[in-house]
Structure prediction request, 301 residues.
Amino acid sequence: MKKKQLWTAAIAALTLILICGSLYYQDRLAAQNTNLAADGSTARELITEPLTSSDRQYAFLGGTSSEDNQAADVESVPEPDSGQQQQDQADSTYNPGTVSDKTEVSQPVPNPGPSDRVGQENKQTEGNTTVVNNPSRSSSVYNKLSPSKGIYGQFRYRELSGGRIEIDPQWVAQNIVSITLPGLNRTMQVNRAAKDKFIKAFSYIKNGTAVVNGKEVPLLSLIRTMDGTFVPRHANWNPASGLSNHSWGTAIDINASNHFGYVSPSQTNDPNLILWEKAFKPAGFSWGNSYSDSMHFELLN
Prediction:
């Protein structure tokens, strides 16, 4: 009987010990969970705090911030080449001009070619007139280079049929201008550097008189025909000859039909001799009469 009571007491004591141990273990586990929760909250608070500039480079194991990404995006976009853009635009608007069937007047091109087709400018001045002498570098099209005529320029050109030539329209646009000749109310194309002398010569003609066959007549009445100023061609329309000064817009033909030869100084009533003495010589022109081309008046260097 006593043995049975001892075993019962031992079992009860062991059960009590186990219950106490279990309760103790649960209390400890609850305390640890509470501490872990507190630690996690602190960690989250630390993570959500804004980074200072000195810490930004270490954020998220060396990752980059949004500002860094934006900067990288900007750097990755190549800057546009403004010079190339201008060049492309210039190339897209280049107009090489057309060949006119008219032999007397060659129209200047209203839209000059691109700047990369133009040589280095060489500006020369006569009085108040500035001329831009810059032959084009587009030698693939205009594959010949004219002689230089000083203030009247130098240009590239190409050969056409019948002794005609086509001048680089860039040069034409820069150097050939239209003027109205005094007294005639007629527009002609001449070299920019020559326009003042043309106007001067025709001012003499407009206001002057001469005695022809004993009768005083206006100089204007002596001009029956006027046969061209700016005409790009070879001399005498012959491809084997050099370029005519008409190609520079520095010459004019007057009364061509009956002035293909030489005029003797004794022919005092000849209209071209009179125009030479009264107007063109005082204005600075030369006369082609010395080489039997008495229709031809021109400006030389």
About this structure: The radius of gyration is 49 Å.
